[in-house]
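Give me the fold.
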Amino acid sequence: MTEHQLIVPRTARYYTLGTPSDDIQHLWIVCHGYGQLGRFFLRHFSGLDDGKTLVVAPEALSRFYLDGFSGRVGATWMTKEDRLSEIEDQAAYLSLLLTEQLRQLPQDVQVTVLGFSQGGATVCRWLATGQVPVQRLVLWAASFPEDIAFEAGKAAFQDLPVAVVYGTQDEFITAEKLEQKKQLMSQLGIVPQVYTFDGGHTIHPETLSKVNKRLLSK
């Protein structure tokens, strides 16, 4: 048996808060976690919709039923199956989306990329390509992926402001995982600003506002 691959066109879905215009100063690309959908995830960012900010939530390309064979649907960025192709497809998708948004915005617009949970690993792998014009990175309840090549990662994340955010009651965040993440980031020259809040595996509006203000001050 021989495995083959064929690149095919796909219809990708994304959602926006705000309208592209010359008034937009900040563009946020926000990537959801495992089992979520873009339109529901985007609701967490309504506080950023101030007339000067455009928020774009791409939806992962693989959808599935969350429980059995019917009912609610979620999406996932990838699985372990054919993972290298999935990673390449993610990067191509997100780069195309970003290019399309930047084409409609002022040249000096500031780009913030946020990855929540599984979306965090997704955006890190994307940024590690070194071809993403980004000014800020927010990893929310997310683990920095260990499979990023050291040299490429060090170059891509050099001097990039990084915020790490998590809830103190997040069932997926353990002291061991936090230490592993800290060590990996240190090896790549990343010194993140860490934010915590009293809550679980979710986006916390008040903390999001705090992170946004801190990033804007840099």
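The beta strands are 14-17, 26-31, 53-58, 62-65, 73-76, 110-116, 136-140, 162-167, 193-197.
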